[in-house]
Amino acid sequence: MKVNGTHYRSLWWDEDQSALQIIDQRWLPHDFRIQQVDTLRDFADAIVEMRVRGAPLIGATAAYGMALAARIDPSDAHLDEAFEYLDKTRPTAINLRWALNRCRTRLKTLPEDERAATALKLAHEISDEDVEINRRIGLNGLEIIRKIAATKQDGEPVRLLTHCNAGWIATVDWGTATSPMYHAHDAGIPIHVWVDETRPRNQGALTSWELGSHGIPHTYITDNAGGHLMQHGLVDMVIVGTDRTTRRGDVCNKIGTYLKALAARANDVPFYVALPSPTIDWTVDNGVVEIPIEERNEREVTHIQGLTAEDTIGQVQVTPPGTPGGNPAFDVTPNHLVTGLITERGVCEASAEGLAGLFPDLANLEKSA
Asked: Is there a binding annotation on residue 5?
């Protein structure tokens, strides 16, 4: 997508520096900073500290981390060490493990002197694949929005609600939940997006920054406003992303997604999840029981970051001194609350049959493993 008229991916390879460049998302939407990632420690820190965030982007970043590991020391032992080191950074987003497995498995079939070049090529492939997957998700989601738009009066927008940031900067490009929005807007369909603030890290501000840069009408709302809007008929469709989806269609996403799904069901509002296939965990069935939920630092809850009156980026404490903060980063929405899964291969119901119908090759591969 574009920043001040210039197209950017969320990460890219700098041939001159022979290094990965990332957008350091800790400072957005107030400051646009680019960071070069030079060491395995830099890669781990970038993922842990959410300089890069979003399941697809984490996976692509990890692939470049494995490429660096192969350049430093292409031995099996070092690749295993790098795998374990990067795998521990974020426990919930499945794309991390997916990318690491894909890289290590491929590299171990090769002679050591071929591994570095192949690893870098594979990281490029994973990034390019993510862009195309998200583009196709957008086209499939566009058809749902188009059908809703056909029921509207002339000029009346389709009103979408989204939670967290499943946008361009949570992927390599396009985004998952935002991709249908971009496609609809570019197709001339009037839309308006309700953007949840998404405490505690306020990733909704990132979504607002993206949508505003693209000229899409939107309103930033508190996390607790969504149910009220649905009650009053002001939401036509909820669309969110996912960090891990089970083989039966349970969806793990940013904390608060489950509550939106409950409100949507109570008010007959369709609830869709934009789902890239690498985010499906075919080894897990019951998401509530089996998916590990990351517990992040309590400071993210007790403090809030923003732009001060002096135009500097700073943090303030919002809780009384000594008050502990609980910070589960994700929750799981059971499949029966999900209207449909929007994937790069089409839209399906959130069920084992629905996912296997679109991805028989992946479902059968897991069965045979």
From this structure: no
